[in-house]
Amino acid sequence: MDREPTMAKNFLFSATQWMHIHSSLWDVFLALLGLFVFRCINERLTNKGPMLWPVLGILPTMFLNINDMYNFITRALSRAGGTFHHKGMWMGGAYGIATADPSNVAYMLKTNFKNFPKGKYFRDRFRDLLGDGIFNADDELWREHRQVVKAEMHSSRFIEHSLQTMQDLLHQKLLKLTEKLVRSGDSFDLQEMLLRFTFDNICTAAFGVDPGCLALDFPEVPFAKAFEKATELTLFRFLVPPFIWKPMKFFGIGYERALKEAVGIVHDFAEKTVKSRRDEAWKHGSLCRQSDLLSRLIEIEYTGGKGKKLQFPDKYFRDLCVNFILAGRDTTSVALAWFFWLVNSNPEVENKILREINDILSLRDETRDRK
């Protein structure tokens, strides 16, 4: 009989304790929810840029606009007056400023360039792909890269080679491919075609290798595909905190595994190109007949460069190849795609351009007839 009151007391005590614990958790949940809502409302009222969520920062906003990223950024910059602050997930180390203000850009890239290095945050994420190349270097290393490359890139020989390379690609490949596509009557992706054009152009002009992306059958080039994939997956590191992507890299899982494979293909292509050119220089004692950038730099190394014996490791040239492809591929092709879109959107400008082209061609014909 005495056990029943004891059991009842224990039950009541346990029930009371359970309610106390869970009511406390419920209070905490409601408090956190209220704080979350308050922060969201305050953020939306005070920040003209993209929504920065508590804890997650700009990540949810970016993922919601992942399929319309360029228009999303354009709208955000427009609303914010050309400049806005952003930050990533807590403890991710991602924070910065996005700007489209010409005065800000000039200040950072020209007036006070030395005060705006890329920094460890940027270099860590691009190191696997770009290595220590010029677009992933700061301070003395950047100046060293610039000094070595600048003289050759501004030489009349390289400029003439680049011009001839572009003319050959334009007349022998791009125009023929365009004519074929027009005759077929099928629609095609202009930006994809321009991307192939700029990829072939930068590889041929800078390294003397034609990947063949502009072949008439639109082939899938493993190196070009791997380079695009490596670039896209590297950018994921700017969205994912380091305490997530670094363990993924260490264990070789998820997108980090695919990134490693893509970077391997890119580096293998670059290393084979460098080895082939070095072997050619060793065999013939000179690369004086070659005018591409890689050959000229190797020529400097083998001839001593005005009395100075320069020794570049293979990794230096490999990183050079990868960095210059990144510089000359997407930038030019995207600019050309936007140019043609603007021309198509403004018929009066298109007519003026066509008239000017016809006038120039007529003058050429007249000059040719006189000769």
Shape: globular
CATH class (first level) name of one domain = Mainly Alpha
Oligomer: single chain
H/E topology pattern? HHHEEHHHHHHHHHHHH
Tally of individual helices: 15
Radius of gyration (Å) = 29 Å
CATH superfamily of one domain: Cytochrome P450
Structural class, by secondary structure, is mainly alpha
Question: Which residue ranges are poorly predicted, with pLDDT under 50 across at least 5 consecutive positions?
Answer: none
Strand content: under 5%
Stated plainly, the CATH topology of one domain is called Cytochrome p450
Written overview of the protein:
- The mean pLDDT is 83.
- By secondary structure, the chain is mainly α.
- The chain contains 15 helices and two strands.
- Among the domains are: 42-116, no CATH class; 146-328, Cytochrome p450 (Orthogonal Bundle), CATH 1.10.630.10.
